[in-house]
diguanylate cyclase (Caulobacter vibrioides OR37), 353 residues
Amino acid sequence: MSDVETTLRGPEAYKIASRALELMERHQVWPTALNFELWTHYVADPEGALARELTRLISLGEPMTELVSEELAAAYLPKARLNQQIRDAGDILSKELEAVSKAIQNAQKSNAAFGKELAGASKTLDKTTDVEAIKNLVGGLAEATRRVAKENRSLEARLAESTSEVERLREHLEQVRRDATTDGLTNLANRKAFDEELDRACQEADESGTTICLAVLDIDHFKGFNDTWGHQTGDQVIRYVASVIGRVAAPPRFAARYGGEEFAMIFPRETAKAVSNTLEEIRVEVSSRMLKRRSTNEDLGAITISSGFAERKPGESGHSIMERADAALYASKRGGRNRVTSAETSPASANAA
C-alpha cells in the first residue's frame, strides 16, 4: 500500500475527500470515480508527481477531459499502471503465440509436402529401373530434405526466441506482482498481501493440524511524533521499525505494514513462548536506539512499540484471530505501552485509550 493510500485510510481521509471535491468544482472537473481518485491523490500528496502534473495542466488552462484523466491515471495511479502493465504483457504474449503458431503451421506444411514427395518417390522407384530417373528422383528428395531441415531450423530458432521472450515476460510480471503486494515506504508486504497470506496460512494450518500465531505491532504516540517533527521524519521512523521487524521475519514468518504506523506478523508452527520472545526482541531493539533527524541531525529521542499476539484456535478465521491480536495490542496500550501482551492472558474486551 502506498503512503497516499495509507493516508486515505486514516482519519485525515474525510478532509482530503472534501478538499478534493472543492478543487474539482473550482476547476470544473466532473466528479467521476476516476477523477475523484486522481484529485484525492493530488490533495493527499501535493508534492508528488501527479500533483505537479495536474498543477502544470491547470496553469496551461488544459481542460480535464476523460482522455486526459485516463492518461494521468495510467501514468501516476498504481492500480492503473499495474493494469496497463498486465495488458501490455498480454499483448506481447499474444503476438508471440501468433508468431509461433505461424511458424508451426509453415513447418507442418513443409513436412506434409515432404511426406507426399517421399510417397511419390517410393511409387516411382517401384515402377522404374532407369538410372537417370532414379538420380533425378534422389536429387529431388535431397533438395526437399534440405528445405524441410531449413524450415525446422527456422522453427527451432523461433521457438527459442519465443521461449526467451516468455521468460522475460514471466520475470516482468513477477516483478509487477511483487510491486503490487509490497509497501512502497518499508519494502515489507502490504495489507492486501498480508490478508491473502493469512487466509492461505489458516487453510494450511487446518489441513496439516498445525498452529499459527498472529501479532500486531504499533508505534507508540506516533501521531504526536508526526505532528511535532513532520511526515518525512515520521516516515523515517516507520522505515526504521520496519527494518527491525524485517530482520526477524525470515520465511516462513511473514511481516507486513498493515496501515499507517501499524505492522502485523504471521508465525506459522511456532509456540506462543517463541513468538513472545521474538516480539520482546523487536521491542527492546526499537527502544534501545536514539534516533536523529536526517535533515538536521537533531535528536529525536527513543521511540517505543506496543504489540499483542494471539494463537489461532482450530478452524478460527483470519478475521477472528486478527480481532483477538488487536485486543491484546489494545491491552498493551492501556497497560502503559512499550510492552508485549498475549491474547490468552489479557481480557478480550481490552480497549486502548
Q: What stands out?
A: The two ends are 27 Å apart (CA to CA). The longest helix spans residues 78-127.
